[in-house]
Amino acid sequence: MLSVKGRFQNGVVHPNEPIEGREGESVIIVFVEEDHTPMPAIQE
Asked: What pLDDT digit, counting tens, does each position of 4-39 carry?
């Protein structure tokens, strides 16, 4: 699993950093409160 922070804009998710080699994989989108501090991507 890979967690990446980004923005949802005009119906499209825009990750804050490039993600390679993940084309076609399923995703779970979670909306977080704006007052949280941004976190870097976490790879497990």
From this structure: 889 989 999 899 998 888 889 998 888 888 775 666
Burial of 6 (0-12, 13-18, 19+ CB in 10 A): middle
Name the residue ranges covered by the structural domains of the chain. Answer: 1-44
30: its two tokens: 């979670």
- pTM of the predicted model, to two decimals? 0.53
Give the C-alpha distances (Å, rounded to integers) separating 25 from 20, 36, 38: 11, 27, 24
What are the backbone angles phi and psi of residue 34, rounded to the nearest 5°? -70, -20
